[in-house]
Task: inverse folding
Protein backbone atom coordinates (compact mmCIF):
# COMPACT_ATOMS: atom_id res chain seq x y z
CA UNK A 1 0.00 0.00 0.00
CA UNK A 2 2.87 2.34 0.75
CA UNK A 3 4.11 2.84 -2.80
CA UNK A 4 0.59 3.56 -4.01
CA UNK A 5 0.07 6.09 -1.24
CA UNK A 6 3.35 7.84 -2.04
CA UNK A 7 2.62 7.85 -5.70
CA UNK A 8 -0.76 9.42 -5.11
CA UNK A 9 0.78 12.13 -2.97
CA UNK A 10 3.31 12.78 -5.70
CA UNK A 11 0.64 13.28 -8.34
CA UNK A 12 -1.49 15.45 -6.10
CA UNK A 13 1.56 17.54 -5.35
CA UNK A 14 2.12 18.06 -9.07
CA UNK A 15 -1.47 19.07 -9.50
CA UNK A 16 -1.40 21.51 -6.63
CA UNK A 17 1.70 23.04 -8.11
CA UNK A 18 0.29 23.29 -11.57
CA UNK A 19 -3.08 24.69 -10.69
CA UNK A 20 -1.93 27.92 -9.04
CA UNK A 21 0.33 28.53 -12.01
CA UNK A 22 -2.59 28.32 -14.35
CA UNK A 23 -4.74 30.32 -11.99
CA UNK A 24 -2.50 33.26 -11.39
CA UNK A 25 -0.51 33.67 -14.52
CA UNK A 26 -2.84 33.42 -17.43
CA UNK A 27 -6.50 33.14 -16.48
CA UNK A 28 -7.36 36.55 -17.79
CA UNK A 29 -9.40 36.98 -20.93
CA UNK A 30 -7.46 38.79 -23.61
CA UNK A 31 -9.71 41.16 -25.45
CA UNK A 32 -8.49 43.06 -28.46
CA UNK A 33 -11.02 45.58 -29.60
CA UNK A 34 -10.72 47.56 -32.78
CA UNK A 35 -13.13 50.21 -33.83
CA UNK A 36 -13.72 51.12 -37.44
CA UNK A 37 -15.61 54.26 -38.19
CA UNK A 38 -16.06 56.83 -40.85
CA UNK A 39 -15.44 60.46 -40.22
CA UNK A 40 -16.24 63.40 -42.38
CA UNK A 41 -13.02 65.30 -42.43
CA UNK A 42 -13.46 68.98 -43.10
CA UNK A 43 -11.62 70.42 -46.06
CA UNK A 44 -10.82 74.05 -45.46
CA UNK A 45 -10.44 76.74 -48.06
CA UNK A 46 -8.76 80.10 -47.73
CA UNK A 47 -11.15 82.95 -48.35
CA UNK A 48 -8.38 84.63 -50.29
CA UNK A 49 -8.20 81.62 -52.62
CA UNK A 50 -11.96 81.60 -53.05
CA UNK A 51 -11.87 85.22 -54.15
CA UNK A 52 -9.28 84.46 -56.81
CA UNK A 53 -11.04 81.42 -58.14
CA UNK A 54 -13.76 82.71 -60.47
CA UNK A 55 -12.66 82.49 -64.11
CA UNK A 56 -13.87 81.43 -67.52
CA UNK A 57 -12.44 78.29 -68.98
CA UNK A 58 -12.88 76.36 -72.20
CA UNK A 59 -16.21 74.63 -72.75
CA UNK A 60 -16.31 71.11 -71.45
CA UNK A 61 -18.75 68.24 -71.42
CA UNK A 62 -21.19 67.72 -68.58
CA UNK A 63 -19.63 65.97 -65.61
CA UNK A 64 -22.82 65.96 -63.60
CA UNK A 65 -26.00 67.92 -63.71
CA UNK A 66 -27.24 70.45 -61.23
CA UNK A 67 -29.68 73.27 -61.47
CA UNK A 68 -30.59 74.82 -64.76
CA UNK A 69 -31.35 78.38 -65.69
CA UNK A 70 -32.18 80.04 -68.96
CA UNK A 71 -31.97 83.56 -70.28
CA UNK A 72 -32.60 84.63 -73.90
CA UNK A 73 -30.89 82.04 -76.06
CA UNK A 74 -28.52 80.88 -73.40
CA UNK A 75 -28.81 77.95 -71.13
CA UNK A 76 -26.88 77.58 -67.89
CA UNK A 77 -26.26 74.25 -66.20
CA UNK A 78 -24.69 74.06 -62.79
CA UNK A 79 -22.17 71.42 -61.89
CA UNK A 80 -22.38 71.16 -58.11
CA UNK A 81 -19.50 72.96 -56.32
CA UNK A 82 -17.56 73.42 -59.58
CA UNK A 83 -19.24 76.05 -61.71
CA UNK A 84 -21.62 76.74 -64.55
CA UNK A 85 -21.75 75.54 -68.14
CA UNK A 86 -22.79 78.22 -70.60
CA UNK A 87 -24.66 76.77 -73.56
CA UNK A 88 -25.88 78.51 -76.68
CA UNK A 89 -29.39 77.21 -77.14
CA UNK A 90 -30.52 79.35 -80.07
CA UNK A 91 -31.30 76.10 -81.82
CA UNK A 92 -32.74 73.74 -79.17
CA UNK A 93 -32.20 70.84 -81.52
CA UNK A 94 -28.47 71.43 -81.38
CA UNK A 95 -27.24 73.20 -78.25
CA UNK A 96 -23.59 74.29 -78.28
CA UNK A 97 -21.25 74.52 -75.31
CA UNK A 98 -19.81 78.03 -75.20
CA UNK A 99 -17.75 78.14 -72.04
CA UNK A 100 -17.47 77.00 -68.48
CA UNK A 101 -17.35 79.45 -65.59
CA UNK A 102 -15.32 78.12 -62.68
CA UNK A 103 -17.17 79.04 -59.50
CA UNK A 104 -16.09 76.94 -56.55
CA UNK A 105 -18.94 76.05 -54.25
CA UNK A 106 -21.62 76.96 -56.73
CA UNK A 107 -25.07 75.39 -56.57
CA UNK A 108 -27.58 78.08 -57.49
CA UNK A 109 -27.86 80.92 -59.91
CA UNK A 110 -30.18 83.64 -61.24
CA UNK A 111 -29.81 86.22 -63.97
CA UNK A 112 -30.99 89.78 -64.39
CA UNK A 113 -30.11 91.75 -67.50
CA UNK A 114 -26.55 90.70 -68.23
CA UNK A 115 -25.64 89.92 -64.66
CA UNK A 116 -25.44 86.37 -63.37
CA UNK A 117 -25.75 85.93 -59.62
CA UNK A 118 -24.26 82.80 -58.21
CA UNK A 119 -23.32 81.44 -54.84
CA UNK A 120 -19.69 80.55 -54.28
CA UNK A 121 -19.64 78.79 -50.92
CA UNK A 122 -20.08 81.70 -48.53
CA UNK A 123 -20.07 84.55 -51.06
CA UNK A 124 -22.49 85.85 -53.63
CA UNK A 125 -20.81 86.73 -56.89
CA UNK A 126 -22.23 88.96 -59.61
CA UNK A 127 -20.78 88.25 -63.06
CA UNK A 128 -21.19 90.22 -66.22
CA UNK A 129 -22.03 87.65 -68.90
CA UNK A 130 -22.76 89.97 -71.82
CA UNK A 131 -19.89 88.18 -73.51
CA UNK A 132 -20.03 84.57 -72.32
CA UNK A 133 -16.46 84.07 -73.50
CA UNK A 134 -15.22 86.84 -71.30
CA UNK A 135 -17.13 86.76 -68.09
CA UNK A 136 -16.20 89.52 -65.66
CA UNK A 137 -16.64 89.51 -61.92
CA UNK A 138 -18.37 92.80 -61.15
CA UNK A 139 -19.23 92.38 -57.49
CA UNK A 140 -18.66 90.00 -54.63
CA UNK A 141 -20.89 90.18 -51.57
CA UNK A 142 -18.74 88.50 -48.98
CA UNK A 143 -19.79 86.04 -46.35
CA UNK A 144 -23.55 86.11 -46.83
CA UNK A 145 -24.30 82.41 -47.11
CA UNK A 146 -23.97 79.93 -44.30
CA UNK A 147 -21.75 76.94 -44.81
CA UNK A 148 -23.06 73.80 -43.12
CA UNK A 149 -25.68 75.84 -41.34
CA UNK A 150 -23.30 78.43 -39.93
CA UNK A 151 -22.22 81.86 -41.01
CA UNK A 152 -18.45 82.12 -41.04
CA UNK A 153 -16.93 84.77 -38.82
CA UNK A 154 -16.12 87.91 -40.80
CA UNK A 155 -12.56 87.88 -39.58
CA UNK A 156 -11.97 84.21 -40.37
CA UNK A 157 -9.40 83.56 -43.05
CA UNK A 158 -10.66 80.06 -43.81
CA UNK A 159 -13.98 78.28 -44.00
CA UNK A 160 -15.10 74.70 -44.38
CA UNK A 161 -15.56 74.05 -48.07
CA UNK A 162 -16.60 70.44 -47.87
CA UNK A 163 -16.21 67.22 -45.98
CA UNK A 164 -14.33 64.21 -47.18
CA UNK A 165 -15.20 60.77 -46.00
CA UNK A 166 -12.40 58.91 -44.27
CA UNK A 167 -12.43 55.44 -42.74
CA UNK A 168 -10.40 55.00 -39.60
CA UNK A 169 -9.55 51.79 -37.77
CA UNK A 170 -7.95 51.96 -34.38
CA UNK A 171 -7.64 49.92 -31.24
CA UNK A 172 -9.79 50.70 -28.27
CA UNK A 173 -6.83 52.19 -26.38
CA UNK A 174 -6.19 54.73 -29.12
CA UNK A 175 -9.88 55.39 -29.46
CA UNK A 176 -10.49 56.04 -25.79
CA UNK A 177 -7.84 58.68 -25.59
CA UNK A 178 -9.76 61.03 -27.79
CA UNK A 179 -13.21 62.43 -27.76
CA UNK A 180 -14.84 62.20 -31.12
CA UNK A 181 -17.71 64.02 -32.70
CA UNK A 182 -19.48 62.24 -35.46
CA UNK A 183 -20.99 64.42 -38.10
CA UNK A 184 -24.55 63.53 -38.77
CA UNK A 185 -25.74 62.71 -42.20
CA UNK A 186 -28.07 65.67 -42.21
CA UNK A 187 -25.31 68.19 -41.80
CA UNK A 188 -23.37 66.79 -44.68
CA UNK A 189 -26.14 66.66 -47.16
CA UNK A 190 -27.19 70.17 -46.29
CA UNK A 191 -25.13 71.73 -49.02
CA UNK A 192 -25.72 69.10 -51.65
CA UNK A 193 -29.40 69.03 -51.20
CA UNK A 194 -32.01 70.60 -53.41
CA UNK A 195 -30.89 71.32 -56.87
CA UNK A 196 -32.82 73.75 -59.00
CA UNK A 197 -34.65 77.09 -59.25
CA UNK A 198 -37.94 78.95 -59.66
CA UNK A 199 -39.22 80.98 -62.55
CA UNK A 200 -38.09 84.53 -62.20
CA UNK A 201 -40.86 87.09 -62.41
CA UNK A 202 -39.03 90.27 -63.37
CA UNK A 203 -39.07 91.52 -66.90
CA UNK A 204 -35.50 90.98 -67.86
CA UNK A 205 -34.71 88.18 -65.44
CA UNK A 206 -34.12 84.68 -66.67
CA UNK A 207 -36.02 81.59 -65.80
CA UNK A 208 -35.14 78.77 -63.42
CA UNK A 209 -36.74 75.49 -62.49
CA UNK A 210 -39.11 74.67 -59.65
CA UNK A 211 -36.32 73.45 -57.41
CA UNK A 212 -34.42 76.72 -57.31
CA UNK A 213 -33.13 78.41 -54.21
CA UNK A 214 -32.34 81.65 -56.05
CA UNK A 215 -35.03 83.75 -57.66
CA UNK A 216 -35.46 87.27 -58.98
CA UNK A 217 -38.58 89.39 -58.92
CA UNK A 218 -38.36 92.97 -60.01
CA UNK A 219 -35.38 94.60 -58.42
CA UNK A 220 -34.76 91.94 -55.80
CA UNK A 221 -32.90 88.72 -55.66
CA UNK A 222 -34.13 86.23 -53.07
CA UNK A 223 -32.02 83.35 -51.92
CA UNK A 224 -32.91 80.67 -49.43
CA UNK A 225 -30.45 78.72 -47.35
CA UNK A 226 -31.41 75.78 -45.15
CA UNK A 227 -32.99 78.16 -42.66
CA UNK A 228 -33.07 81.74 -43.95
CA UNK A 229 -34.40 83.94 -46.71
CA UNK A 230 -31.85 86.52 -47.79
CA UNK A 231 -32.92 89.54 -49.81
CA UNK A 232 -30.55 91.41 -52.16
CA UNK A 233 -31.36 94.72 -53.77
CA UNK A 234 -30.38 94.52 -57.42
CA UNK A 235 -31.91 97.76 -58.69
CA UNK A 236 -28.44 98.33 -60.08
CA UNK A 237 -27.86 94.87 -61.44
CA UNK A 238 -24.10 95.12 -61.30
CA UNK A 239 -24.11 96.19 -57.68
CA UNK A 240 -26.15 93.77 -55.53
CA UNK A 241 -26.66 95.04 -52.01
CA UNK A 242 -27.20 92.77 -49.06
CA UNK A 243 -30.69 93.32 -47.66
CA UNK A 244 -32.73 91.84 -44.85
CA UNK A 245 -32.51 88.29 -43.74
CA UNK A 246 -35.59 86.44 -42.54
CA UNK A 247 -35.45 83.29 -40.50
CA UNK A 248 -37.75 80.64 -41.94
CA UNK A 249 -37.12 77.65 -39.73
CA UNK A 250 -35.14 74.60 -40.70
CA UNK A 251 -35.39 72.54 -43.86
CA UNK A 252 -35.98 75.19 -46.53
CA UNK A 253 -35.68 73.83 -50.03
CA UNK A 254 -37.15 75.95 -52.78
CA UNK A 255 -38.51 79.40 -53.51
CA UNK A 256 -41.09 80.28 -56.13
CA UNK A 257 -42.32 83.82 -56.72
CA UNK A 258 -45.79 84.39 -58.13
CA UNK A 259 -47.33 87.80 -58.55
CA UNK A 260 -46.71 89.53 -55.23
CA UNK A 261 -46.21 86.35 -53.24
CA UNK A 262 -43.25 84.15 -52.45
CA UNK A 263 -43.98 80.44 -52.08
CA UNK A 264 -41.26 78.76 -50.10
CA UNK A 265 -41.08 74.99 -49.95
CA UNK A 266 -39.62 73.37 -46.87
CA UNK A 267 -39.47 69.76 -45.89
CA UNK A 268 -42.32 70.21 -43.46
CA UNK A 269 -44.61 72.45 -45.46
CA UNK A 270 -45.06 75.46 -47.68
CA UNK A 271 -44.65 79.04 -46.44
CA UNK A 272 -46.45 81.87 -48.20
CA UNK A 273 -44.93 85.34 -47.92
CA UNK A 274 -46.44 88.59 -49.10
CA UNK A 275 -43.93 90.39 -51.23
CA UNK A 276 -45.75 93.70 -51.69
CA UNK A 277 -42.89 95.33 -49.87
CA UNK A 278 -40.04 93.48 -51.58
CA UNK A 279 -37.41 94.50 -49.09
CA UNK A 280 -39.26 92.93 -46.17
CA UNK A 281 -41.47 89.98 -47.16
CA UNK A 282 -44.22 89.29 -44.65
CA UNK A 283 -45.32 85.86 -43.53
CA UNK A 284 -48.94 85.10 -44.45
CA UNK A 285 -49.39 81.42 -43.73
CA UNK A 286 -47.74 78.03 -43.55
CA UNK A 287 -49.32 74.95 -44.98
CA UNK A 288 -47.91 71.93 -43.15
CA UNK A 289 -47.66 68.43 -44.41
CA UNK A 290 -45.77 65.29 -43.62
CA UNK A 291 -42.00 65.48 -43.68
CA UNK A 292 -40.73 65.15 -47.23
CA UNK A 293 -39.19 67.15 -50.05
CA UNK A 294 -41.48 69.47 -51.90
CA UNK A 295 -41.01 71.93 -54.72
CA UNK A 296 -43.92 74.24 -55.41
CA UNK A 297 -45.30 75.95 -58.49
CA UNK A 298 -48.21 78.32 -58.59
CA UNK A 299 -50.56 79.15 -61.43
CA UNK A 300 -53.62 81.32 -60.89
CA UNK A 301 -55.22 80.38 -57.59
CA UNK A 302 -53.72 76.94 -57.57
CA UNK A 303 -50.48 75.78 -56.01
CA UNK A 304 -49.02 72.45 -57.03
CA UNK A 305 -46.77 70.84 -54.48
CA UNK A 306 -44.88 67.60 -54.91
CA UNK A 307 -43.90 65.49 -51.94
CA UNK A 308 -41.38 62.77 -52.36
CA UNK A 309 -39.47 60.32 -50.28
CA UNK A 310 -35.72 59.89 -50.32
CA UNK A 311 -32.69 59.84 -48.12
CA UNK A 312 -32.34 63.53 -47.65
CA UNK A 313 -36.10 64.03 -47.43
CA UNK A 314 -36.81 61.53 -44.68
CA UNK A 315 -40.38 61.15 -45.85
CA UNK A 316 -42.30 58.16 -47.15
CA UNK A 317 -44.83 60.03 -49.21
CA UNK A 318 -44.88 60.32 -52.98
CA UNK A 319 -47.68 62.51 -54.14
CA UNK A 320 -48.76 65.65 -55.94
CA UNK A 321 -50.90 67.96 -53.83
CA UNK A 322 -53.17 70.59 -55.25
CA UNK A 323 -53.90 73.60 -53.05
CA UNK A 324 -56.27 76.51 -53.41
CA UNK A 325 -54.27 79.62 -52.52
CA UNK A 326 -56.85 82.23 -53.50
CA UNK A 327 -56.76 83.21 -49.85
CA UNK A 328 -53.01 83.15 -49.17
CA UNK A 329 -53.63 83.39 -45.46
CA UNK A 330 -55.47 80.10 -45.49
CA UNK A 331 -54.47 77.68 -48.24
CA UNK A 332 -56.88 74.79 -48.72
CA UNK A 333 -56.01 71.31 -49.87
CA UNK A 334 -58.15 70.40 -52.90
CA UNK A 335 -56.81 67.10 -54.07
CA UNK A 336 -54.00 64.58 -53.64
CA UNK A 337 -52.68 62.61 -56.60
CA UNK A 338 -50.48 59.64 -55.80
CA UNK A 339 -47.21 59.66 -57.77
CA UNK A 340 -44.05 57.56 -58.01
CA UNK A 341 -41.25 59.86 -56.89
CA UNK A 342 -42.10 63.40 -57.96
CA UNK A 343 -39.33 66.00 -58.11
CA UNK A 344 -39.51 69.30 -59.97
CA UNK A 345 -42.51 70.43 -61.94
CA UNK A 346 -43.50 73.18 -64.34
CA UNK A 347 -46.72 74.56 -65.80
CA UNK A 348 -47.33 76.15 -69.15
CA UNK A 349 -50.93 76.98 -70.04
CA UNK A 350 -52.90 73.80 -69.62
CA UNK A 351 -49.88 71.51 -69.52
CA UNK A 352 -48.26 70.29 -66.32
CA UNK A 353 -44.79 68.77 -66.62
CA UNK A 354 -43.90 66.57 -63.69
CA UNK A 355 -40.51 64.96 -63.09
CA UNK A 356 -40.74 61.54 -61.53
CA UNK A 357 -37.03 61.05 -60.82
CA UNK A 358 -35.92 57.69 -62.19
CA UNK A 359 -39.45 57.08 -63.44
CA UNK A 360 -39.12 59.79 -66.08
CA UNK A 361 -41.28 62.69 -67.14
CA UNK A 362 -45.08 62.84 -67.05
CA UNK A 363 -47.14 65.42 -68.90
CA UNK A 364 -50.71 66.14 -67.80
CA UNK A 365 -53.52 68.25 -69.20
CA UNK A 366 -54.76 70.31 -66.26
CA UNK A 367 -57.81 71.87 -67.91
CA UNK A 368 -59.81 70.03 -65.28
CA UNK A 369 -57.46 70.31 -62.35
CA UNK A 370 -59.52 67.97 -60.21
CA UNK A 371 -59.07 65.08 -62.61
CA UNK A 372 -55.59 65.31 -64.05
CA UNK A 373 -54.96 61.65 -63.33
CA UNK A 374 -57.42 60.91 -66.16
CA UNK A 375 -55.68 63.16 -68.62
CA UNK A 376 -52.03 62.15 -68.76
CA UNK A 377 -50.77 63.18 -72.19
CA UNK A 378 -47.41 61.44 -72.16
CA UNK A 379 -44.98 59.52 -69.97
CA UNK A 380 -41.32 59.44 -71.01
CA UNK A 381 -39.74 56.61 -69.04
CA UNK A 382 -36.37 56.29 -70.75
CA UNK A 383 -34.42 58.72 -68.63
CA UNK A 384 -34.14 60.28 -65.22
CA UNK A 385 -36.03 63.54 -64.68
CA UNK A 386 -35.13 65.98 -61.96
CA UNK A 387 -36.46 69.38 -62.94
CA UNK A 388 -38.07 71.16 -65.88
CA UNK A 389 -38.40 74.64 -67.31
CA UNK A 390 -41.21 75.08 -69.86
CA UNK A 391 -40.29 77.81 -72.35
CA UNK A 392 -43.47 78.33 -74.37
CA UNK A 393 -42.88 75.79 -77.09
CA UNK A 394 -40.02 73.78 -75.81
CA UNK A 395 -39.16 72.22 -72.54
CA UNK A 396 -35.82 72.01 -70.77
CA UNK A 397 -35.49 68.92 -68.66
CA UNK A 398 -32.55 67.99 -66.50
CA UNK A 399 -31.98 64.52 -65.15
CA UNK A 400 -29.08 62.65 -63.63
CA UNK A 401 -27.96 61.50 -67.07
CA UNK A 402 -28.08 64.81 -68.88
CA UNK A 403 -30.14 67.64 -70.29
CA UNK A 404 -33.07 66.93 -72.61
CA UNK A 405 -35.09 69.33 -74.70
CA UNK A 406 -38.59 68.52 -75.86
CA UNK A 407 -40.81 70.29 -78.37
CA UNK A 408 -44.29 70.55 -76.93
CA UNK A 409 -45.85 73.06 -79.36
CA UNK A 410 -48.46 70.34 -79.79
CA UNK A 411 -48.86 68.87 -76.28
CA UNK A 412 -50.34 65.72 -77.73
CA UNK A 413 -47.27 65.17 -79.93
CA UNK A 414 -44.28 65.90 -77.72
CA UNK A 415 -40.99 65.30 -79.50
CA UNK A 416 -37.43 65.00 -78.22
CA UNK A 417 -35.31 67.72 -79.82
CA UNK A 418 -31.89 67.09 -78.37
CA UNK A 419 -29.95 65.57 -75.57
CA UNK A 420 -26.75 66.62 -73.82
CA UNK A 421 -25.35 63.59 -72.07
CA UNK A 422 -23.01 63.36 -69.16
CA UNK A 423 -19.66 62.82 -70.82
CA UNK A 424 -17.19 62.67 -68.00
CA UNK B 1 -35.13 27.23 -32.62
CA UNK B 2 -31.56 27.38 -31.41
CA UNK B 3 -32.39 25.26 -28.37
CA UNK B 4 -33.98 22.67 -30.60
CA UNK B 5 -30.66 22.34 -32.41
CA UNK B 6 -28.84 21.99 -29.11
CA UNK B 7 -31.16 19.15 -28.07
CA UNK B 8 -30.85 17.42 -31.44
CA UNK B 9 -27.10 17.70 -31.25
CA UNK B 10 -27.10 16.11 -27.80
CA UNK B 11 -29.41 13.31 -28.96
CA UNK B 12 -26.98 12.56 -31.75
CA UNK B 13 -24.09 12.18 -29.33
CA UNK B 14 -25.42 10.29 -26.37
CA UNK B 15 -26.73 7.11 -28.06
CA UNK B 16 -23.30 6.57 -29.58
CA UNK B 17 -21.84 6.27 -26.12
CA UNK B 18 -24.70 4.21 -24.83
CA UNK B 19 -24.72 1.67 -27.64
CA UNK B 20 -20.95 1.37 -27.65
CA UNK B 21 -20.92 0.86 -23.91
CA UNK B 22 -23.37 -2.02 -24.26
CA UNK B 23 -21.18 -3.69 -26.83
CA UNK B 24 -18.23 -3.55 -24.51
CA UNK B 25 -19.93 -5.45 -21.72
CA UNK B 26 -19.24 -8.90 -23.05
CA UNK B 27 -15.51 -8.55 -23.63
CA UNK B 28 -14.61 -6.50 -20.57
CA UNK B 29 -13.91 -9.25 -18.14
CA UNK B 30 -10.23 -10.12 -18.38
CA UNK B 31 -9.06 -9.83 -14.79
CA UNK B 32 -5.73 -8.29 -14.00
CA UNK B 33 -4.07 -9.32 -10.72
CA UNK B 34 -2.79 -5.82 -9.85
CA UNK B 35 -5.99 -3.84 -10.04
CA UNK B 36 -9.35 -3.66 -8.37
CA UNK B 37 -10.91 -3.50 -11.82
CA UNK B 38 -8.82 -4.31 -14.84
CA UNK B 39 -8.23 -1.78 -17.60
CA UNK B 40 -9.14 -3.33 -20.90
CA UNK B 41 -8.97 -1.89 -24.37
CA UNK B 42 -12.35 -0.65 -25.49
CA UNK B 43 -14.84 2.15 -25.60
CA UNK B 44 -14.74 4.90 -22.99
CA UNK B 45 -17.41 7.54 -22.67
CA UNK B 46 -17.59 10.49 -20.39
CA UNK B 47 -19.69 13.48 -19.59
CA UNK B 48 -18.49 16.34 -17.42
CA UNK B 49 -20.22 19.44 -16.12
CA UNK B 50 -18.57 22.47 -14.64
CA UNK B 51 -17.55 26.06 -15.00
CA UNK B 52 -14.85 28.01 -16.77
CA UNK B 53 -13.55 30.66 -14.40
CA UNK B 54 -11.86 33.75 -15.68
CA UNK B 55 -11.09 37.37 -15.15
CA UNK B 56 -11.60 40.37 -17.40
CA UNK B 57 -9.48 43.47 -17.01
CA UNK B 58 -11.60 46.58 -17.28
CA UNK B 59 -10.44 49.83 -18.83
CA UNK B 60 -9.87 53.13 -17.05
CA UNK B 61 -8.42 51.50 -13.95
CA UNK B 62 -11.71 49.89 -12.95
CA UNK B 63 -11.50 46.65 -10.95
CA UNK B 64 -11.54 43.46 -13.02
CA UNK B 65 -14.71 41.42 -13.55
CA UNK B 66 -14.67 37.79 -12.45
CA UNK B 67 -16.54 35.51 -14.79
CA UNK B 68 -17.80 31.93 -14.68
CA UNK B 69 -19.15 30.28 -17.82
CA UNK B 70 -21.05 27.00 -17.56
CA UNK B 71 -19.44 24.21 -19.50
CA UNK B 72 -20.50 20.74 -20.64
CA UNK B 73 -17.95 18.30 -22.00
CA UNK B 74 -18.71 15.04 -23.77
CA UNK B 75 -16.01 12.52 -24.57
CA UNK B 76 -16.22 9.37 -26.68
CA UNK B 77 -13.03 7.45 -27.14
CA UNK B 78 -11.15 4.20 -27.34
CA UNK B 79 -8.89 3.01 -24.57
CA UNK B 80 -5.69 1.47 -25.84
CA UNK B 81 -3.93 1.47 -22.52
CA UNK B 82 -4.63 2.68 -19.00
CA UNK B 83 -2.47 5.70 -19.75
CA UNK B 84 -3.78 6.33 -23.23
CA UNK B 85 -7.32 6.79 -24.43
CA UNK B 86 -7.99 8.71 -27.63
CA UNK B 87 -11.36 10.08 -28.62
CA UNK B 88 -13.49 12.89 -29.80
CA UNK B 89 -14.49 15.78 -27.58
CA UNK B 90 -17.48 18.01 -27.90
CA UNK B 91 -19.79 19.92 -25.60
CA UNK B 92 -21.05 23.39 -24.87
CA UNK B 93 -19.28 26.38 -23.38
CA UNK B 94 -21.64 29.18 -22.51
CA UNK B 95 -19.43 32.26 -22.73
CA UNK B 96 -20.83 35.73 -22.20
CA UNK B 97 -21.23 36.60 -25.86
CA UNK B 98 -21.27 33.20 -27.50
CA UNK B 99 -22.27 29.59 -27.12
CA UNK B 100 -19.20 27.70 -28.27
CA UNK B 101 -19.43 24.08 -29.33
CA UNK B 102 -15.95 22.58 -29.14
CA UNK B 103 -15.22 19.86 -31.66
CA UNK B 104 -11.86 18.29 -31.09
CA UNK B 105 -9.61 15.40 -30.28
CA UNK B 106 -9.01 14.36 -26.68
CA UNK B 107 -6.48 12.17 -24.93
CA UNK B 108 -7.09 10.72 -21.46
CA UNK B 109 -5.02 8.58 -19.13
CA UNK B 110 -5.21 7.23 -15.61
CA UNK B 111 -1.95 7.23 -13.70
CA UNK B 112 -2.56 4.46 -11.18
CA UNK B 113 -4.15 1.06 -11.06
CA UNK B 114 -6.21 2.00 -8.05
CA UNK B 115 -9.73 2.83 -7.00
CA UNK B 116 -8.60 6.42 -6.44
CA UNK B 117 -6.20 7.74 -9.00
CA UNK B 118 -5.11 10.97 -10.60
CA UNK B 119 -5.75 11.27 -14.30
CA UNK B 120 -4.79 13.63 -17.05
CA UNK B 121 -6.74 14.98 -20.00
CA UNK B 122 -5.68 16.90 -23.06
CA UNK B 123 -8.21 18.30 -25.53
CA UNK B 124 -7.69 20.45 -28.57
CA UNK B 125 -9.66 21.46 -31.60
CA UNK B 126 -12.01 24.05 -32.95
CA UNK B 127 -14.71 25.81 -31.01
CA UNK B 128 -17.60 26.33 -33.37
CA UNK B 129 -20.39 28.85 -32.92
CA UNK B 130 -23.07 27.43 -35.19
CA UNK B 131 -25.39 26.98 -32.21
CA UNK B 132 -24.65 30.40 -30.80
CA UNK B 133 -27.16 33.17 -30.73
CA UNK B 134 -26.39 36.46 -32.33
CA UNK B 135 -24.55 39.00 -30.28
CA UNK B 136 -25.20 42.53 -31.54
CA UNK B 137 -27.00 41.21 -34.59
CA UNK B 138 -24.15 39.06 -35.77
CA UNK B 139 -23.12 35.53 -34.93
CA UNK B 140 -19.69 35.49 -33.35
CA UNK B 141 -16.96 33.61 -35.12
CA UNK B 142 -15.39 30.61 -33.40
CA UNK B 143 -11.74 29.68 -33.01
CA UNK B 144 -9.21 27.15 -31.84
CA UNK B 145 -9.18 25.78 -28.32
CA UNK B 146 -6.72 23.92 -26.14
CA UNK B 147 -7.69 22.36 -22.84
CA UNK B 148 -5.18 20.41 -20.68
CA UNK B 149 -6.28 19.25 -17.29
CA UNK B 150 -5.67 17.02 -14.29
CA UNK B 151 -8.01 15.40 -11.83
CA UNK B 152 -9.01 12.60 -9.57
CA UNK B 153 -10.73 9.50 -10.81
CA UNK B 154 -12.85 7.60 -8.30
CA UNK B 155 -13.77 4.17 -9.52
CA UNK B 156 -17.33 3.10 -8.87
CA UNK B 157 -17.52 -0.20 -10.71
CA UNK B 158 -16.27 -2.03 -13.70
CA UNK B 159 -15.12 0.67 -16.14
CA UNK B 160 -17.18 3.37 -14.46
CA UNK B 161 -15.85 6.24 -12.37
CA UNK B 162 -16.51 9.73 -11.12
CA UNK B 163 -14.14 12.45 -12.25
CA UNK B 164 -13.13 15.63 -10.43
CA UNK B 165 -11.01 17.71 -12.74
CA UNK B 166 -9.26 21.00 -12.91
CA UNK B 167 -7.71 22.42 -16.04
CA UNK B 168 -6.93 25.33 -18.23
CA UNK B 169 -8.89 26.22 -21.33
CA UNK B 170 -7.83 28.63 -24.02
CA UNK B 171 -10.43 29.49 -26.64
CA UNK B 172 -10.50 32.25 -29.23
CA UNK B 173 -13.68 33.94 -30.46
CA UNK B 174 -14.24 36.89 -32.73
CA UNK B 175 -17.23 39.17 -32.70
CA UNK B 176 -18.26 42.11 -34.78
CA UNK B 177 -20.78 44.74 -33.84
CA UNK B 178 -22.15 47.58 -35.89
CA UNK B 179 -23.52 50.48 -33.95
CA UNK B 180 -25.00 53.56 -35.48
CA UNK B 181 -23.20 56.15 -37.60
CA UNK B 182 -21.08 53.64 -39.42
CA UNK B 183 -19.12 52.56 -36.38
CA UNK B 184 -18.02 48.93 -36.38
CA UNK B 185 -16.50 47.37 -33.30
CA UNK B 186 -14.53 44.16 -33.74
CA UNK B 187 -13.47 42.10 -30.77
CA UNK B 188 -10.93 39.35 -30.90
CA UNK B 189 -11.25 37.55 -27.59
CA UNK B 190 -8.98 34.89 -26.20
CA UNK B 191 -10.60 33.23 -23.22
CA UNK B 192 -8.05 31.98 -20.72
CA UNK B 193 -10.12 30.10 -18.23
CA UNK B 194 -9.62 27.75 -15.38
CA UNK B 195 -11.97 24.80 -15.76
CA UNK B 196 -13.45 23.00 -12.79
CA UNK B 197 -15.56 19.99 -13.73
CA UNK B 198 -17.31 17.02 -12.20
CA UNK B 199 -18.01 14.08 -14.49
CA UNK B 200 -18.91 10.50 -14.93
CA UNK B 201 -16.97 8.01 -17.01
CA UNK B 202 -18.37 4.81 -18.42
Result:
Amino acid sequence: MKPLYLSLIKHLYCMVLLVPCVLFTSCTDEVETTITYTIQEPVYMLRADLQEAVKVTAPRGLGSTGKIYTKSNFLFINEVDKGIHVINNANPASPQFVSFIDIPGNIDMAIKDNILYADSYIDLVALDISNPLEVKLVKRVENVFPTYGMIVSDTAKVFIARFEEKTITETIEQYNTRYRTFWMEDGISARQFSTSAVPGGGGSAGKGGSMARFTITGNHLYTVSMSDLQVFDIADAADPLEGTKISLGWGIETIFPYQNKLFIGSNTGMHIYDNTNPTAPEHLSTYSHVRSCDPVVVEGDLAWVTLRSGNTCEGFTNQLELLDVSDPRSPQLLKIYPMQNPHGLGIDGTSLFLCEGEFGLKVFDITNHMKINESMLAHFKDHDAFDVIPLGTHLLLVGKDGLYQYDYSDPKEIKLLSKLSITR
Amino acid sequence: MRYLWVVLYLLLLIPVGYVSAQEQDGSAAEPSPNSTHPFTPGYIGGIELGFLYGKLENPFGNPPSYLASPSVLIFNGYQFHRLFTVGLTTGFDFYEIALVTPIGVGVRGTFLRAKLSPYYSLDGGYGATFLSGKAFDRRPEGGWFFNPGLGLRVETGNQTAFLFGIGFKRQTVKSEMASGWGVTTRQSITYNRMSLRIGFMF
Notes: The helical segments of chain A are 2-26, 47-52, 172-176, 185-192.
